[in-house]
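Bug #77: duplicate submission created two jobs. Keeping one. Sequence:
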Amino acid sequence: MRADYYDSEPIPDRAFMKELKRLDKRLGCKYRRDIKRFVITWERSWGPVGECLVVKDETGGFRQPDRRDLLILCEGDLHRTDLRERIMRADAYMREWREKEEKREHDEIRNQTKDDKLQLVKAYRRAFNVGTKGDPFRKVIPKKQNAVNTNQTSA
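Kept job's structure:
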């Protein structure tokens, strides 16, 4: 028998590999020498192979990959959830984001106009092209020219 037929590295179970490939064709399992553990990998369309999961027992030691690892991968799979549930989560997220954005805009406008109310009026006039500049002081109403003052007593 030839010595190159045997490898010192462990090989994952064939039944496990079949189940893994049934989950996704891009999944694989390889032995990493540096950590002396099996690693479940995922082939990307570009770049190096990504690692999804390191297979280890409860104490952190070496073990062969089995059904427990498949269940962990299934729990992390977002596409296995119900379509309605995913839509509801996305809807709730967008509703919450809109509320936060409205509150942020409201706070921003309030913070800009805290110090000076005339600042808001000027900004409104500039934005909507309404009228001319506002008076910085209160208006003085002119008196009528031929008005008789009734409060004076004649001497």
